[in-house]
């Protein structure tokens, strides 16, 4: 999944021959999962049509402050457009537009939106080689960079004049790659490794039966998604679940039984910065697994159980640099039992669920948690979607690294 997924992009197009490439650029933004609105200067419409861009972006294209042919038409609010965007891209950025951006010459909707933008701004210059190297253009590059704008360097090749040299607008694929790399490099969990466990474990009785629980794995999967979206490299060790996740920063390690989850986790644990044990691991397993299906031969049937290896306790016992988060699902004496778990398993933070709370626990789209840290600071949270709870949990990871 691209870091552009879900991002709101305001694309400003100025009047140069390279404007024809913006149709491909919009298509690539949309393909990456972004939402796009387009502002065109009047001159840019000589090179690419608003109809093409509105069709590709699935949004109206803006090019003037109001429709002069309709006296009842409301004005295009440049401030509203600028505040909507997560970031703005100006491509192509001609010498004329760069000069206006530098000096605040606000004579069209694009420049008005740019001057109102509080979000990051990228610009991709496009012009002939002599214009690109002219001292006034170089001064514009320097000034705009000093304002905090990010320049996507022009490429070298054949130009509209027939000359060959530097000044070609970066190809759409390269603009996408530049922005993705820049955004990824600024993500707060970039470079951090996080191990997350999720889902139930199934402990075999015979080839067709098992001891398990109702965990869907959704909480762990949601935490993995949020952490990866913030730049973390995530290893997700998951028991049996119908859930799927697709993210370039998430490695999924499927397991079935507690013993498998234990060994899989310890392949990665020593190298991670954070471990979040969200899986509902079986506490006990059958001492003996039958090789064949057990037949119904009597009214009574006894299964001898033995303890599984305690994955979370083993994390705590071997903890070095790891920030360790555990979960506790309780039905009585919730706070006291959670505090004991913090001490016994050497946790930094516990996420407490109570089955006494409506909307919490297994098989629901919501959760109601209480954070308790190793100093026993208690922070109850309201009922939220599991996606929102995952964001809250990852926020605790961010607090740890910021402290």
From TrEMBL:
InterPro entries: CoaB-like_sf, CoaBC, DNA/pantothenate-metab_flavo_C, Flavin_trans-like, Flavoprotein. It holds the Pfam family DFP. Its EC number is 4.1.1.36, 6.3.2.5. Residues 194-403 are annotated as: Phosphopantothenate--cysteine ligase. Keywords: Decarboxylase, Flavoprotein, FMN, Ligase, Lyase, Magnesium, Metal-binding, Multifunctional enzyme. Pathway: Cofactor biosynthesis; coenzyme A biosynthesis; CoA from (R)-pantothenate: step 2/5; Cofactor biosynthesis; coenzyme A biosynthesis; CoA from (R)-pantothenate: step 3/5. GO terms for molecular function: phosphopantothenate--cysteine ligase activity; phosphopantothenoylcysteine decarboxylase activity. Catalyzes two sequential steps in the biosynthesis of coenzyme A. In the first step cysteine is conjugated to 4'-phosphopantothenate to form 4-phosphopantothenoylcysteine. In the second step the latter compound is decarboxylated to form 4'-phosphopantotheine. In the C-terminal section; belongs to the PPC synthetase family. This is Coenzyme A biosynthesis bifunctional protein CoaBC.
